[in-house]
Amino acid sequence: MGGLPEDKRAVLKLVFAERLPYHRNEGYRTAKTSLPFKALEDIHMGKFEMVPEEERSFHRIYLIFN
């Protein structure tokens, strides 16, 4: 696996929400992923719903006048 060290650090920061947890006796542990990857997981697992049309219209109006 090649690449510059700063590129590798940038990828780690994009993928993981926090530093990789490390325990002296157990080694690296599973880290929490960042928000974009959590959203992708939710989509993959079917954990989402469409917003009802009435609410979408309200949000459009709010964005226009805010």
In short:
The chain is built from three helices and two strands. It is mainly α and 66 residues long. β1 and β2 form a beta hairpin.
Folded structure, characterized:
There is one protein chain. The chain has helices at 5-15, 35-45, 53-65, and strands spanning 22-23, 27-28. The chain is elongated. Strands 1-2 form a two-stranded antiparallel sheet. The chain has one domain (5-65). The chain has three helices and two strands. It is mostly helical and 66 residues long.
Give the N-terminus to C-terminus distance in angstroms. Answer: 48 Å
Give me the secondary-structure category: mainly alpha
Number of domains: 1
The radius of gyration is 19 Å
How many β-strands, per DSSP?
Answer: 2
The main sheet orders its strands as: 1-2
The helix-strand sequence is HEEHH
Show unreliable segments.
none
Helix content: 40-55%
Largest sheet entry:
2 strands, antiparallel
Query: How many H/I helical runs?
Result: 3
Fold blueprint:
Layout: H1 5-15, E1 22-23, E2 27-28, H2 35-45, H3 53-65
Antiparallel strand pairs: 1-2
Keywords:
single chain, 66 residues, mainly alpha, elongated
